[in-house]
Amino acid sequence: MTQHFPNADASRLERGRRALAEIDGEAGHKVVAALGDIAPDFATYILEFPFGDIYSRPGLDLRSREIATIAALAAMGNATPQLKVHIEAGLNVGLSRDEIVEVLMQMAVYAGFPAALNGLFAAKEVFAQVRDDDSTQSRRAEAQ
Question: Do 25 and 47 fall within a single domain?
Answer without folding.
Answer: yes
